[in-house]
Amino acid sequence: MQALNLILTELSIMAVQNTNTSDSPRLLSLDAYRGLIMLCLAFNGFGLEATAKRVLEKSPDSTFWQAVKYQFSHVDWIGCAFWDLIQPSFMFMVGVSMAYSYVKRADRGDSWGRMFGHAVTRAIILVFLGVFLISNGAARTDWSLMNVLTQIGLGYAFLFLLWRRSAIVQLACALAILVVTCLAYHWTAGEGISLEEGAPQVGVEKAWAEQHLADVPPAWHKNANLGHRVDLVVLNWLPRETAFEFNRGGYQTINFIPSLATMIFGLMIGELIRSNRSSSQKLAFMFGGAVVAVMLGVLWSSLGCPMIKRLWTPSWALFSTGICIGILAAFYLVLDVMRWQWGSIVLVVFGVNSIAVYSMGMLLRPWTAKTIQTHFGADVFKLAGEVYEPMLQSMAVGCCFWIVCYWMYRNKIFVRI
What we know:
This protein is mainly alpha-helical. The chain has helices spanning 2-19, 28-42, 48-58, 63-71, 86-107, 112-134, 148-160, 167-187, 206-212, 226-234, 256-274, 279-302, 314-337, 345-351, 354-363, 365-376, 389-410. Residues 1-24 have low confidence and may be disordered. Helix 2 (28-42) packs parallel to helix 15 (354-363) and helix 11 runs parallel beside helix 13. It has one domain (2-42, 74-188, 225-363). It is 64% helix and 0% strand. It is built from 17 helices and no strands.
């Protein structure tokens, strides 16, 4: 145990040295937050959702495993679980990162035009990388634009246009985006989905509609809203083997517009942390802002704009942003202010190579699991019984990804766009 403590302490020191050098200072709390999200993805939610389903088949009344299943699944429509916060965290951290990355480019002499060109290039690469990864295993390219990378790419160049603008301008733009989004959905609302009949032609069964849409205004009904109508046009412009009819999960391409507000809020927080304010002032603004954003999200939801992550409704944008600010503030307090950095390497290794981790998870997860079985036996993941097989498999695969990223970290290999 003492040896393990010494190893982790040494690794923590290395993390601080490699992420906070004088030549290229990094925000350790941001790397750790990003690392936490990538850890969850790399370990596939630690296999908890699949394990919970198996346990509940035998013990359906287990409140613990019901809670686990809920938190590590996406909610069907209205509400928020831990797993629903993965994408908002991505979007939010993109904004925080921009506050740092382009300052470095400006300091080295890059013109505004050159930096804007870089932002546009990065946006295009993110869109195509998202399409490439989501098409893994498909018979042909899946021109879907709801993936987190494509959503970031669609809004990234617009986000850059607000870089180095005043906080008032940034806040006004973010709120304007959310208000206009809300009005646009309400102004174009139709009759919505019939609770008595459902709409199987767009993937909404009667039982599902009765359970999830009873108190939802028609503007926010699944696959019967503005975003769905836009996709019927936009996605059918793209090469497809069959015509696009609906997204099974209810996600829409124009979600990138309200999620741009999430990125703008992240940019504001990044600028705040970069400012000359004291640490106590920064933390007060962050924790205060987190509370206000959550409260406004809940209030807006009560006024007829429900919190629906799959549509990135304005209330969801505010509520989830508040949670993201709170998480970053907690990391900032512990790692950058109090300097309690022991063990942070576990997260930082993933955090500084997020693109690599995301790509490995999308492309190599089945192959890695099969390779482990090849060398250690087909039943290696059943050591704790078949019920816990998904958990052991996810943990083993995630550890393999971490080892690869640690090797990259030690050799200063970072995949960036």
